[in-house]
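Handout, section 4.2: multi-component inputs.
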Amino acid sequence: MKEFPVFVPWGGEQLAAVVGAPEGPARGLVVLSSVPGSPRSHRYQVWASAAERLSDRGIASVRFEFLGLDDSTGSVAEVSMMVTPLDQILAVTRFAQRAVGVDAVVAAGNCLGAQAALALAAELPECAGAVCILPRVVRSVGMRGLVERAQGGRIRFRLRSSRVIRRFVARPLGRFDLKVRSVVGEPLLRALGHARVLFLYDQVDLASRSRAFPKIRALVNRLPELHRSRFELRVLPTRGLERFATIDVQEMALEALVEWADRCLPETSVPLPVHSSAPTGDRSLRT
Amino acid sequence: MREFPVFVPYGDEHVAAVVAVPERTPRGLVVLATGLGAPRSHRYQVWAVAAQRLAESGIASVRFDYPGLHDSTGSAEEIRTSRPPTEQTMAVAEFARRATGAREIVAVGNCWGAHLAVALAARMDGCVGAICILPETVEPGRVDGALRRAAGRKVAGLLRSNRTLRRVLRPLRHLDLQAKQAVRDLLPRALERARVLFLYDREHLDTGPHEVGKVRALLARLPEGSRGRFELRLISGRGLARFGSVEVQDSLLDAMLEWTEERFPRQGEAEPDPEASLASGAAVSPRGVP
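Output:
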């Protein structure tokens, strides 16, 4: 595998990225989104390892950092799950597609990165698949939402601190008072029109987030059979996926990612003309 | 400023780095080493911001990921604080020196990186200074070691879990502290030819005055010339250990820039030197290409 560290121009800023290319022609490209708090290699180099494994299967990859984080330029006062940084992931994807000369794409990410991956899958017709690790699918609405927002969340903390209230009030309320977040639901439906989407959870989520699963299924069940068949929700038989906390969970996540990319991308290379004029890794600050 | 992401070859592996160069011929080069766990841009992009501010003063810089971590290749099953990757850091520094055309180096690092900074100052020709941010300078002495061996870890844990015993034992532990082997070996060698700045904040001085005392005792045994090259500075603000506030980040960057500028005196504004460009000065090979 060859890896090329680059700066991808985005507006007046530059997004730091690493393009991983296999030795031969690439079958496709996997876009690996990082999350705020982890650099593009991700915790324990999981994305760097993913790039290597994908390359062994003849698949190129690009991993990058969002604006204002790590080596990317710019500044962010706040990173919010409310907004998906679609423009940035699109810019990086277009750059990497031209750089490695492929059309087919699979998007992958966890948490905010999963949201970005889903948005990319919805936006790009050539995106054949998405792997969303622990996407935050639901949000509180109605009374629960009101409580969460009241007094800047202070009431919520007071309620949470009481075990009795937690068990007999908050938990039952939480089961019935959830809604699929629009930044996930809407792109999921669009993405399934042409791409295979995998939602990946672990045993911890089976216990704590299981009430979100029926919401996802209900949403997907509204789709025609063909679209529905492109969706899979998989629960890994392990724990600690949220932080890639063990080698075991890293292995399983990587296997799932590589397998899904393998399944979604064409078996042989469908090359695009390689653009020799793809911008090089030179970040110039414009002042 | 221009920044070039590169993979620096080291043995069979590649160290991921970003070389930042000012628009004009650089006055010098700063090697930025992180603490363990942080990527090369460091927490809150502090090293990335440092690179920008250094470049505005005409100083080049290089920041990098340790082998086996983040974008660097290789595998690190265990990381020993007593064995920082000095050789790899020297390779990165040498690469950046060739790439930027700078002659003199100042090494900067915090925590683990601080040891690398001293090591570079001690071992690398042309390294004229080291800035050590919160260096770990002491380790338990012989008594502590003997106690651990004799009583075992369980007893030591038991002693620590009792507040009264802990309070009684604290003065004894402080008496037993000694300067770390790395500091004992490297700091005197570094001070023979380079200036060294230790940076602390008020918070650290509240909790770790004994460390400073040990370093001062070590320095007292050195010749006057070496002692004169050492400086210990307190910066304003708290939370330096985690770059915990914008205030402490600014104070740190101000101190770093001011001290570094003194090491690289201005000698008239030089014109850009095309011969010293990254492309002509060093081989930038993609990772994985022999």
